[in-house]
Amino acid sequence: MTATTKQPDTRGLAGQTIGDTQICSVGQSHLIYRGYEIADLAAHATFEEVAFLLIEGRKPSSEELEAFRVELSEYANPDPSIIELVQQIARTSPKAHPMCALRTAVSAASHLDPDCEDNSPAAELRKAKRLVASIPTIIGAHQRALEGKDAVKPDPSLSHAANLLMCITGERPGEIAARVMDVSLILYAEHDFNASTFTCRVIASTMSDMHSAVCGGIGALKGPLHGGANEAAMEMLAEIMKSVEGGTTPEAWLADAFVTKRKLMGFGHRVYKNGDHRAGILRDWGIKYAVQENAGAKKWFDLGDEVQAIMLREKNIHPNVDYPCGMTYYAMGIPVPQYTPIFVASRVTGWCAHIMEQHQNNRIIRPLAEYTGPELKSWEGN
After folding, report:
1. Which residue segment(s) compose the domain that 266 sits in?
2. For residue 313, is pLDDT > 90?
3. Is residue 140 included in any domain, yes or no?
4. N or C, fewer C-beta in 10 Å, the chain?
5. Which residues contact 71 (CB under 8 A, 6 or more apart)?
6. Whole-prediction pTM value?
7. Which of 269, 277, 318, 359 is catalytic?
8. Which of 79, 97, 155, 226 is catalytic?
9. Residue ranges of the alpha helices (H) in 45-120?
């Protein structure tokens, strides 16, 4: 009897290389944006510099960076009708997920963009900058409307990350808060052919427009197995904290979760089997913020470390970046439903870079499927 070799499970395109890119490299021990390693960028770059790197394709000079900041400032205020739209959504559908409001706003913005149907490189750069600049303002306007408050206009003197925080909270952030948000945006900006980026590239491969592709990316990122994992991770930790305060230990809560085969959010990664190095960077910044600005939030990181240690000991599973993200944003007072829209405010830079790359060397993405349905039958004979 001949032994058979078990074929690898390739569902979800696991382990499959389906294209090439000059934008990003993801490996077990590295994450590289256009030649620069993520730890280097998180330590020494600003989000504006990383955004320029991704969509323009190179590290900016000081003159280019200043011009880029001016452009972002000019594009940061979308047409008033877009702000009114998300405010109306907040008033009439307050339970709608903010990702739905953001997706609708981006779609509506396409009607007002003079370059919408132009896929030339110059037009796509302009569209990318408008999207990067305006999305934080849209996110903030929606959150403020949910709270019954007026939208906050961006301040040209503030960084991109600081404006994002101010538009959401209505308060000018301190230096440490702005830097923590800046680092989180850098960490989330790009990750090769992940689900949402691949969605953008599939749409772009039909030669559809950038706004349509970004709307698809937002839809893909909304799912709890992708961008929504940061929300789900924080909700899980909140449940564990409530259980602990009621007398249960984290070990007992997790033991029950293991028995019931509950999916534990914020842990594991399709690529990083030995740990997501972004997670440690964001955890350290989150703790730094808690220690300096919100000592009461330190308990979440203490609990998070305990849960992480149990997961590693019992299951040999490491956290991904969504795990410390939930705790960090929570410590900063950001409403949980806005975590994934903030992810969009970052990842839109990577999406736009991939959309442009796809358009510049395009072939429609059309894979095959293996049919597993019934055998051929006769319609009249059955």
Report:
1. 229-331
2. yes
3. yes
4. N
5. 129, 133
6. 0.92
7. 269
8. 226
9. 47-56, 62-75, 80-92, 98-112
